[in-house]
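Predict the structure of Alpha-amylase.
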Amino acid sequence: MKKLATLLPLAALLLGPVPAISHAETSTVKHPAWTRSANIYQVNVRQFSKEGTLNAVTAQLPRLKAMGVEAVWLMPIHPLGEKNRKGSLGSHYAVRDYLSVNPDYGTLDDLRKLVKQAHALGMRVMLDWVGNHTSWDNKWASEHPEWFKKNDKGEIYSVTFKNEAGEMEEWTDVIGLDFTNKALWKAMTDAMAYWVRAADIDGYRCDAAGLVPTPFWNQLRTELNKIKPVFLLAEWDQPELHEHAFDASYDWPLSNMMIKIGKGEANAADLRNFLAKPPKTYGRDAYRLEFTANHDVNSWQGTDKELYGPAYGAMAVLSYTLPGIPMIYNGQESRLEKRLEFFEKDPIEWKTYELEGFYTGLNQLKKANPALWNGAAGGPLQMLDVGNEQLFAFKREQGKNSVRVIVNLTGSPQKYKLAGDEGPAQLKPWRWRILVSE
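Done. Here is the predicted structure for Alpha-amylase.
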């Protein structure tokens, strides 16, 4: 923590708050209390250990707890399709049976033990749910072909859609579900409710959530909350998803901005402009998932070293201190420097946990300061003028708690003057200063 936070009297020149206006202001989602100061840790079960099992994850929960992790997100734990499989093991997101545990990972009892241990440590567990599509050999395809999308010839076909960038994508190993059939709604809702009841999980990360009708998610939230308060994370970024269904959504735009900064294609001014005029606006209580890596980024875009180089630490600090719920991808605490294979066994090289202390400090900083909490529980973003436009500086306040952050987004030393300092100070390349006051 000594490298992260310094206690100083509060004083700063404000340029004014970033707007926080959205049609999602009327959100009816009631966030579980534990989420207000929470962070998320994503586990790629296949690659998390040489064993690639749920029990191997359970064994690491005390270490994750000591690091300050509060919620563990398990990538899909279900049996995977064999027909049209990609690679030798297949995609995690080509689910063959929604109601079973992949035998490569373990058993239902193993999952129950994992959740029970996490709860005993004060942690929560989320499952990854693939609601838009199944594998070709999912039993629903033979038992209920009417639940699947069909082409003009009446044939089930591989998932094809236009992504958010306007490009056409085809996923040849999976087939799309047809949510115009309300019988599918009940079957899918029952399947998701099953794991809450059977294993006492605490919520879901919902894959490709925007490709599933929002009304389905709205009714799902109501049904799951009848069992227990759940946390739902959408892999999408439409503000309407926050109105009745989802606690959190992916902040892909900020992720892309941080990657551009890391590659020297954007600077502090670009980040300020982006935050002042975001591509979409959200209600103050909508959580946005902030990350420097996840399974898609790591496998398909690049490692932290490739994407950010020496800027990596600065980007991680921003992901924890800007408004949003922060996430760590497994292995980042050991400076993961390889792209994990997506369709093959490729265990993380854990080495020396070089950055474990760094992430422990960030988790402690987040937890200890209400100004950095999630949604309306935290403070809004207010830009600071430190006399140097090459630096990105801001403040967040909640009650008497205030956190000021100054980050050098360049590869050279930069001077700045912060109110309360005796004179100009200097930040080394890609370094930061965090000041907390009560």
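The two ends are 17 Å apart (CA to CA).
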